[in-house]
Specification:
Elements (H helix, E strand, L loop, with lengths): L2 H15 L3 H4 L2 H14 L9 H6 L26 H14 L12 E4 L12 E5 L2 E4 L3
Antiparallel strand pairs: 1-3, 2-3
């Protein structure tokens, strides 16, 4: 993984699941990281690099242009935030295989507040905090 991939990976975890940390500890952040790595392991279907996967349009909402979380990904001093540092640690450990896949090989998730059409017929693999995880392939 390149330093740029690690940076994008870290920012994606921060943007997607930082709010879950308060109630769920690191597990929700780890689960989002698991989904990203599981997509990487699908052989290019979702992208060939971590950056490709994270920045693919409409996949991780924190990168959507109108998402309120997007500006937070670039706020000054973010790299000094302890939660951002934790996201980086999680990204490093999940991508290296040192930490487990909590999602049972899931490659998709969504918040409880929405129900995407793709999820209607799929079996839930994990409910964690405000997220539900699935394996579509």
């Amino acid at each position: 993984m390149t330093p740029h991939d690690l940076d994008i990976f870290t920012r994606t975890l921060y943007g997607e699941a930082r709010g879950e940390y308060t109630h769920g500890g690191p597990a929700p952040l780890m689960a989002v990281a698991n989904v990203i790595i599981n997509r990487l392991n699908r052989g290019g279907k979702y992208g060939r690099t971590i950056t490709d996967i994270c920045l693919k349009p409409r996949q991780f909402s924190c990168w959507n242009k109108n998402d309120p979380n997007r500006p937070l990904l670039f706020k000054e001093g973010l790299e000094r935030d302890p939660l951002f540092y934790l996201c980086k640690t999680i990204a490093e450990n999940i991508s290296s295989g040192r930490w487990p896949d909590l999602t049972r090989d899931s490659d998709h998730y969504h918040e409880l507040s929405c129900r995407p059409s793709w999820a209607r017929t799929k079996k839930v693999r994990l409910r964690l905090g405000h997220h539900i995880f699935y394996k579509l392939d």
